[in-house]
């Protein structure tokens, strides 16, 4: 080997050693960067959850409009009131209008102690939140909390969990302390039901056509391309579509006006039906794509053996292909529905109600949903609305978690059953 | 699609009800075309109503620097500008980070690590955007304000919204880019290593260039997603059009405007009502074009390696 020549090409031995070291260092540098980037990505998920959880616990400063001791002297908590004292307090202190309404809904004598306490708290004591801190702030900002309390009269500090059983069952309310998400939860469930009824049959049908029947023609290629495009259209565009088609053009149908039996037609077209149909269109392409993936997983040998014993095409699909792929179709559908459950923008556009205290009773009712509730509470500047927004987010995330783990559980169970049958 | 599907031995000679079923399924498949046509027809028709209003002209719409429907000024540049700002900030943040995560997952992580990380990314991708909006408002904005000062950073600003949109599209970029990188044939990697390249050099000089079209398709799709993102900007970017290039100032995006106007009680056939459809049309055209290009590029890519 000609040493001179090698040196002129690659430099001296020392130089090439240096180069090798530099390359090795560069390798380590980039690997650190890659691992750092991945850590940052995981960190964001944690931060997201932590920032939500942080807001649902913490100190809150509360002021009562009427002190409890003013109602019955010598007491400091409603729990100390006897049954007769509760009834008496309610009768004596409620304004006549509210009292009449309350008696009409459910007479005071028939209400339980717990209901009476809630009633007195809401209409007579009227507590309001002056300021609230998150969990982190409650631990680290003791001085600030102390200083704030020192300047306050007639108010008291409590450590509060904003997510409570009452939060799930209460109506909407202008006061964060007794606001709840019952109407929003019910609205979400109604909407998801409509979404499923529209998108599941059409989605699975389309997928069967595209996977099992469609020849490789121009039209069918266009159908496929169109589905991919639709799945990437921003959701707010579906909202505009729903607004123009379901809310306006089909107002007679979606408001329930064509049925004379439906008394509440004040909703005009902005009903659960419109919302559900809009979200149905939104998740349709996702269900089609997921179902197609499921059908692709079915081996052709199954189809051929079915044809071999004389089954027709549809018999093959109905009794061989669909049962085998059903678990995956179901999982794909549930994933699509959880997308619909968290969707906000299209429902805001078609005009979900900002404030309703009546539970939805039919598909022609006005509605609000959990994500919309979160949006409205987050958008308010007052601190305590942030707390209940966070509490509603936790409920939404738990709902999604249950839905998704349910899908995985079902899939595993069905897959096991399939293996046993085989 | 269906190149591989097998035909029935009796071919077209089928019973009547078999053909009826096929027709019904075909009609179901056509339904998705009707959605696209419906979107196009409605956006164009309502936009036409908007532009036929005497107060509005096409030239003003595309060149005007003020959007104030109250006094009859309809220049959509401030809205477009804010949309571009949030999207660009999101991309500047998410493309490098997402690409690095993808390289790590595809080329360096062990199967065990990959098995743990991918579900985490899926969870991130499954969280509703409204939660990200809350995160932008209650975490990112205060963070930016404490870093750069309360006076420089407004309560509502495009930087916070853009960064959180970046976090939102991060898992999407990471998983799609990982697919593109994994699709590069093993032979190319081996050849790179055989020529004496270190694994990192092979990644940067052989694998990434080979995956370039797949990666571009990913980035385009992520951009389209960022442009169409609504709830994050509605909560964190600010309410009110503002022609500014300062990312720490409040500025309303196209999607933010649509949500704000339709969320209030707007009466049908008013200029306000029609304007959201005109803006929707602009949004639809931009995102649809990006999606189409992305699809074409990605088809090219996967054909190359089939």
Which short descriptors sum up this protein?
heterodimer; A: 422 residues; mainly alpha; MetI-like fold; 2 domains; 3-stranded antiparallel sheet; 19 helices; B: 306 residues; two-stranded antiparallel ribbon; 12 helices; 2 strands; 1% strand; globular
Can you give a write-up of this model?
The complex is a heterodimer of chains A (422) and B (306). Chain A has 19 helices and three strands. The model of chain A has no long low-confidence stretch (mean pLDDT 85). Chain A has two domains: 101 residues, no CATH class; 240 residues, MetI-like (MetI-like fold), CATH 1.10.3720.10. By secondary structure, chain A is mainly alpha-helical. Chain B has 306 residues and is mostly helical. Chain B has a single domain, classed as Orthogonal Bundle (MetI-like fold). Helix content of chain B is 73%, strand content 1%. Chain B contains twelve helices and two strands. Chain B has a two-stranded antiparallel sheet. The two termini of chain B are 15 Å apart. The chains are: A mainly alpha (422), B mainly alpha (306). Chains A and B meet through α2, α10, α11, α12 and α14 of A and α1, α3, α4, α5 and α6 of B.
